[in-house]
Structures are given as C-alpha cells and as structure tokens.
Amino acid sequence: MKGETKPMRVVCAMSGGVDSSVAAALLLDQGHEVIGMTMRLYDAPDEARGRAAAQAGRGGSCCSPAEIDRAKDVCAALGIPHYTVDERRRFAAAVIDDFAREYAGGRTPNPCVRCNEHVKFGPLLARARALGAQALATGHYARTDGGILRRGVDPSKDQSYFLFAMGEEALANVMMPLGTWSKDRVRERARELGLVNADAPDSQELCFVAGGSHADVVERRAAALGLDLDPLAPGTIVDRGGEVLGEHGGIHRVTVGQRRGLRIAGNAPRYVLRVLPESRQVVVGDADELAVAAIEIGDLRRLAPLPEGGELRAEVQIRHRSPATPASVRIVGDVALARFAAPVRAVAPGQAAVIYVGEQVVAGGWIAASEEAPA
Amino acid sequence: MCYSVPVIYLDHNATTPIDPRVRARIIEVLEDPRLQGNPSSVHAWGQRARAVVERARRSVARALGAEPLEVTFTSGGTEADNLALMGAARSLRARGEACGILTSPLEHPAVLAAAKALAAEGGAVAFVAVDPRGRITPEAVTEALRERPEIGLVSLAAANHELGNAYDIPALVAAARAVRPEILFHTDAVQAVGKIAVDFRAWDVDLLSLSGHKLYGPKGVGALLHRRHLRLEPLLRGGHQERGRRPGTEGTPQIAGLGLAVDLAVAELELRSAHVRGLQRRLRRGLEQIAGLRLYGDPEVSTGNTVSVGVPECEGQLVLINLDLAGIMVSTGSACTAGTLEPSPAILALGCSEEEGRSVLRVSLGKDSQEADVDALLAALPGAIARVRAEA
To answer: CB distance from A126 to chain B under 8 Å?
Structure first.
C-alpha cells in the first residue's frame, strides 16, 4: 500500500506465530488502532498433538487451534481485541482440494500461493473493510509501500515469491510492516515485548498436513472429491529410453528434481525429470538432463504494468529460497515465456514462477511447460 | 482493549455482572476468619462455615419452592444438568428400570452432550418435536412418549438460552405423567430463574438445574434441585458432602453468594421482569423498523429479556465484531458454542439452513440494562449491517 503513516484502523492477520505478533505490535507503535484476526482454516489432523507441541514450547502449525489460542494470548498481552473467523470451507475448496487435484495431475502445487490468493488477501481484506478498517496487515517479509511489491530486506526470510497472486487491489490496501526487518530483529523485539512465542521455531511444513504425510492428504481428498484415483496408484520408474528401472508408490509422492527415496538399481545418482500421470511413469535421468532453457508461465498475474508482446529483461524465480535467474521474458496475454540467460535445474510443472525486476515483483504465474537445455 | 468507547453489555444470557450486594456478601464470607473452616469439620470454624452453607441452601429452597434437603450445590449449570441426566439415568438403569431420555433439539449443550454420552452407554435418546418458533406443546410430549416405554427421564428447559422462549413446564409435566405416571422430569431452569416464576413443587418436576452467574451471582456455582428421595448416581467419587450426591469440600463463599443471588432474583422478580420486558418491546419495535431483519422465537411466551435476530445474507460474527468495536457486546448464539464458529444449533433445530444459522445475533437484556443501551444498539446496527453487506 502507499506509504501512509496516518493513524487508522488496521486488521492484522495473526497466525499465532512470532512474525504476525510483532507486526501487530509495530502497528500499535505507529499509532494505529489494531484488531487481531485469525482465520480458522482447517480441522487439525491431530489437535491433541498440536496442543502438546504448543505446550512443549514448540510451535504448532500456522492457524491450528493451539496457534489460535496463542494469537489470543498475544493480543491480550498487547491490549488489542482478537477475533477468529471461520474459513474452513473456503480453505478446503481453494487450497486443499486444489492440492489434491494438482498432485493427481502430476504437478507440484504451491498451496501457500493459493491460500494467499484465495483466502488471505481476498476474503480477509473484505472482512477488514466490513469492520471499518482502512487496511489489512500481515507478518510477511515483503514490502508493499508505494503500491508496489518488493522483496523483504532479510534475504533469508523474503516471502515475496508467495505473494504475486495477491492482486493489485490487495496490494494497495495491505501493510507488511516486517518487510524492512530481519528475523533476528523480530525475535529480539518479541522478547522485549515478552511475547510467549518469541522463540517458537519457524513453521516449515504445510499447515494442513502438519505432522502427517502430504501423500495421505492427497489420497484422502482425491477420494472424497471423487477424482480418478488411477494416477495415484503405484507405477514404474523408467529412463528416457523407456527401460524400467524400478517402481514408485504413486506419482503424488514424486517431484521433478527429486533424487532421494527412489528405489532404483545402479550407482549413478538419478533425478526425476518428468512425471507422466496417464501412464503413471516417472522418468529419471542424470543431473545434466534436469537443465531447462526456457519455461512457459501460465495464468499470469500482474502486479505492475508490463510491455505487451515486447521483451522484458527480468529475473525469474521458480522456487522459494532459490535465487532468481536472469531471463528474457515475453508476455502475450496471460502467458509469459521466459528464456533463461543460463539453464536452470529441476523445473516442476505447477510450481509458481515469479518475475522480478530488481527487487520488485512485476508478475507471476504457474509453470505450464519447459524447454530442455541442449546438452 | 486499547479503544476507549462506552461499554454496553447486552449478553446477559451468557453471563451477568455480579450484583454488588452479592459481591459484598461473598467478600464478607471471604474476609471473616471464623468462616474459613471446612463445613464438614466438627470444630467451631467448621460449624460456622456449615451454617453459611445451610443458610444458602434454605434460601435457594425457599425461593424456588423446594425443601433444603432437595438442594445439591454444584459447580454450575453444566454440572447440575449432567448430574440430573447422568445421575438419574444411571441410577434407573442400575435398578433395571427404563432409563432412556426424551429431550428437545433446542436444549443447552450440557443437556444434549449428557444425553449423547448416555446414548453411548447404550441408553435410548429421543427428541420431542419443536415448531418453527421453537415452541413445544404438551401434545408433542404425549406423542413422543407414546409407545416408547424405554424412556425413563424427560429433560426440557424452562427457558431457551438462544431464543428466550419460556415453556409451560407444568403442562409438559402433566402431559408426560398422563402417559407414564412414574416418569422422571428434569427441567434446565438456568435461563429461567430470576426471569420467570419458578416453583419446583408446583411445577411437579423431579429435577431442576440453576446457575449462579446467570442471575447476578458468582461463577463456578450452581445447584440441582431434586425430589428428596430421588436416587442419583454421583458423577464424582469422594467424600460424603451433599449427602454423597456431590463430594468435594463446599465452596462456602460462592455458595453464600448463590444463596443471596437466588433470594434477590425471586424477591425482585416482578420488578426485573417488568423492566426487561419494557426494554425488549422497545428493542423489538426498533428492530422491526430496520428493513430485512428476521426475529426468531416466540414473543408471546418468553423470558422477556432475549431477542434472537437474523440478518439475512450477513455473517452474524462480523456484525457482532462491528458492534463490539463500537463498545456494544452481544452474541451469535450460546456462548458455549460461539467459540467454535459453528452456526447456532438452536436456529438449525428450527429447520433453518446453516447460512441462516450463521446470520443470527442474540441480544439478551439484564436488570441493569437501560433504554439508552437499547437505543445505542439500534443506532449502531444499521451501519454495522451496511458495512458487512457491502463486503459480502
């Protein structure tokens, strides 16, 4: 959002974690009237385990019932109101069902991007406005000031990659006060404030599979949705010549670029090159064969004006926590073709590809196809 | 809270602020060193503490038309309901008698969950029919009991916590006894005592629950009235307190507070009732002026303090939050279910959709509510609804 500092009513999305807690505290320091809000997103796979983890001082996963309690504790300590809103149905439809469909289709989904697009920045912003708030705030490590989305200044925490689909309207109305902060400084501030979650570890796993296996979630949801379950059955691992090298437990258990966990003979390291849902085949090959020269990015979302048809010199990031690679990007409608200056490895269809110009996110979409780099 | 706005409390069915006279009585008991003994102790301090407990017991009994021996103190309404259902049904079962439960889908979760637990033990549970306004007729009770010899206990609330309906318990008891003279009848009067006239003997019920904090008394204390010789399997195991029905050292200060709160509630019943009824009329009239609202419950026979109002195509929770941010506190249903974000079970029991169940706000007035409180709510509501609708 624009660099406003005038005191206003702000709804702060609180996950129960240290980041959004400190974000709320910073907004208070800036003189805003802050309202804490936590979304109930799913019924925890094992609430008892989540609670036990929280009591043992380890964080539960984002927005779990134990973390909702923690967000309440933090808001009480900060002296601000806290409310919980029910988004279980929306989250199940937009995030968990999509997760199952994508894996069943041989792609690698990114549920965090989906959640940001369909749950966090649409409905939650609407709710914030319904409460008379002028802005929504989150604890993301990214910068939204000036109406543009930029990387957070802490390179180890930058979350801009997950935010490209938030939409320009949300971008204009969302504050991310941690964008200029480092995680260390956030923890330090949390300790100064005496927040209960100051030293809780960062959550690394997907909230709705916390403690469980993502393959189980895929199988359960796919069955509940009445999807064709054939692609989830065990299949063969083959080389590029079609020779069978082994078996796998289902294509949803395999991701492009994966090396570990493949039960195949031979000494040379083999990597997953492709997943073929129709034949349930997983094609493996050498590390060199993972190299990709260009990708097609579909369902493109813009966060800045882009040249239509022309070439854009940009950087494209195809994974969280991997550097963006310089690329020449041509945009036609809602498709972008990115040709990398140097080949990138392990490009998983379905994953998000985000286009940066310098620090700024200008667009992003989902990897639809890739072109192998010549050997 | 960091925002400074006037505070208007309109959630008296969730809990009531303590009456200053009750608070003074509790503090008096807490501060008197001679009242700190264990009421079961033989010595002087024990005897003094015992006297406090028994005085409260007499107050509760006298105020509600029961004998002191018919009063068992509990930790609150939930325990009283659980003791009534589980204690009576298990005792019937142990004697080989019919021990099934007949209740209604509008009951408080304390009753419904206890019935569910008994069903898990193999007991029968049946539900009486309710009409779209949440009314229960004697004929419906007759109908539900006919050809159901497995039912040994009927449990129907004297007043509904979400709709504010008051029920003609004597008529429902008569209907039940006409089918089965020996049947036991429990009424959850947690929302009734202090709002309508309650008379254990005249109503001819066997069991009656009440709670301290719903009638300007302390939290953490309630009582179950039961016929003198009624057998109740205790929920807790321990000492002989409360004649073995409820072991555990009596909470002397809270029990003293409950005794006075019940006394005051009954002594001031007409005054309080006339006051809230006047406010309720004002509130209903005002709500009728706001287009598109839906009022639930039976205004003809009600506790006079509760208005259950639906805001179609609106998430009630968001209207509630808007009001809270303006310093006006209401509820989206029973506080016992509000935290779970589920739609109001009572509204669902009336045959409404889940979406409609999520659209309902409950406003419950109290003895200290003012016309200005009602007016403030009526003034704030259209803006809150408009804001929520604009983003729906």
So the answer is: yes
Q: Does B119 touch chain A (CB under 8 A)?
A: no
Q: A81 vs B324: CB contact, 8 Å cut-off?
A: yes
Which of A58-67, A75-84, A114-123, B338-347 is predicted least confidently?
Answer: A58-67
Question: Quick one: CA torsion of B33, B38, B42, B43, rounded to 10 degrees?
Answer: -20
Residue A35 C-alpha, separation from nearest chain B C-alpha, in angstroms: 9
Measured between alpha carbons, how far is A274 from A285 in angstroms, rounded to an integer? 9
Q: Which of A80, A126, A130 sits opposite B2 (nearest CB)?
A: A80
Going by the DSSP 8-state scheme, the letter that residue A202 receives in this structure is P
Query: For residue A279, what are its two tokens?
Result: 């034949």
- Rounded to the nearest angstrom, the gap between the alpha carbon of residue B279 and the centroid of all alpha carbons in its chain is 21
* pLDDT tens digit sequence for A165-205: 999 999 999 999 999 999 999 999 999 999 988 888 887 77
Residues B319 and B43: their CA atoms lie apart, in Å, by 57
Cα–Cα dist A9/A32, whole Å: 6
Nearest chain A residue (CA) to B316: A85
**Residue B335 clears pLDDT 90, i.e. is over it:** no
Return d(Cα A245, Cα A342) in angstroms, integer. Answer: 31
Nearest to A106 by CA among A280, A249, A366: A280
Beta B151-155 vs B184-188: how paired, if at all? parallel
Is the CB of residue A141 less than 8 Å from the CB of residue A159? Answer: yes
Residue B223 CA to chain centroid, in angstroms? Answer: 12
Cβ of residue B321 closer than 8 Å to a chain A Cβ: yes
Instruction: For residue A170, give the nearest of A129, A131, A216, A229 by alpha carbon.
Output: A129
Nearest-CA distance from B16 to chain A in Å?
21
CB of B392 less than 8 A from some CB of A: yes
Residues from chain A that touch B387, judged by Cβ atoms under 8 A, are 129-132
CA dihedral B71, B208, B219, B330 (to 10 degrees): -160
- How many Cβ atoms sit within 10 Å of the Cβ of residue A37? 26
Q: Which residue in the list B2, B99, B314, B336 is annotated as catalytic?
A: B336
Answer whether B14's CB lies under 8 Å from B331's CB.
Answer: yes
- Quote the pTM value: 0.89
A chain contacts of residue B388, beta-carbon cutoff 8 Å: 130
Per-residue burial over A53-70, b = 16 or more CB atoms within 10 Å of its CB, e = otherwise? bbeeeebbbbbbbbbbbb
**pLDDT tens-place string over residues A56-100:** 444 456 677 788 899 999 999 999 999 998 888 899 999 999 999
Q: Single out the residue of B306, B288, B294, B282 nearest to residue B366, CA to CA.
A: B306
Please check whether residue A30 touches B, CB under 8 A: no
User: Given CB atoms, is B1 within the 8 Å cutoff of chain A?
Assistant: yes
* Residue A206 confidence class, pLDDT cut points 50, 70, 90: confident
Which stretch of DSSP H or E encloses residue B175? helix B169-179
Helix then strand then coil, % of chain B, to nearest 5: 45, 15, 40
B311/chain A closest Cα distance in angstroms: 14
At A352, the amino acid letter reads A
The residue of chain B with its CA nearest to that of A37 is B321
